[in-house]
Amino acid sequence: MLVSVVVPALNERENIPQTIDAIPVEKLRSEGHDTEIVIVDNGSTDGTGNLARKLGAKVIVQPVRGYGNAYMAGFANCSGEIIATGDADRTYPFEILPEVVSTLENENIDFLTTNRLAGLRPGAMSRSHLWGNKGLSMVARHLFGVPFRDSQSGMWVFRRKVWSSLRLRSGGMAFSQEIKVEAFRYGFNCVEMPITYSPRGGESKNRTITDGLCNLTQLLIERMRPSVSAERRGYADAAAFLDTPEAFQAADPPSICSVCSNQTVPGFTY
Q: Which domains does the chain have, with CATH numbers?
């Protein structure tokens, strides 16, 4: 089975070699999985895309900047039946992918997200970002009943049918919470697992106040979408991969509305 690892990148030339090298291609191959590394160059000016291509990655150019825009272009142009994500700043532990993919397959999981807050290394997240993440996660739990402890995490592993079923619109950072909330509301079998989250390499591009307000607004507007019945929701806590989640039927997709959705283009490969 093909696993696509989709990584958005904006001016990450100094981090991209270590990011690509951290993806355990040989370990995945030994477990029967081919790997497609997809780097989405989101308007870089430092040659990130050219370097990634030289290192063997498939490069998708998404000139319209935005976290969600980058992911939508990457997902539209990847081929894997399983899709994994993470940032290009060396914060996420790509080395766990073989274990996570195996769990996804064996435990009948559709969408697996990660909890960074359970394993923060010193210096990995500022106090303002920590409390902002906790606050947004609390709002998401209150508004939608989702049990995710970290609604803003950027590392997910999921089956292609999830992406094919959801119609997401957030072009910016709100995409991360939108995909989790919509996967849960749609009725996919969802899991959250703790990970170790490391300090990023290079300069941070986060806009704490702007992104936080945009994400909060998106949650409030998301609340106006029709809800999926509780019987059709699925969730399990994957700490140590001990619990086997129950299977749930998929519900009909809700109608769509959005916020912070910049112009989206499909991207192109070079």
A: 2-257 (3.90.550.10)
pTM of the model: 0.80
Beta bridge partners of 113: 156, 192
Q: Please, which residues have CB within 8 angstroms of residue 157's CB and are 6 or more apart in sequence?
A: 82, 83, 84, 85, 97, 100, 101, 104, 112
What is the secondary structure of 118-183 as a DSSP string?
GSBPTTSS-HHHHHHHHHHHHHHHHHH----S-TT---EEEEHHHHHH------STTHHHHHHHHH
Instruction: Find the helix or strand (DSSP H, E) in which 73 lies.
Output: helix 67-76
Number of neighbours of residue 224 by Cβ within 10 angstroms: 9
CA pseudo-torsion sign 23, 27, 31, 32: positive
Coil, strand or helix: which one is 109? coil
Instruction: Determine the residue type at 157.
Output: V
Over pLDDT 90: what percentage of the chain? 63
Query: What is the Cα–Cα distance from 71 to 87, expressed in whole angstroms?
Result: 11
Q: Give the tens place of pLDDT for each residue, 171-184.
A: 998 999 999 999 99
Q: What does the DSSP assignment read for 36-62?
A: EEEEEE-S-SSSHHHHHHHTT-EEEE-
Rg (CA), the chain: 17
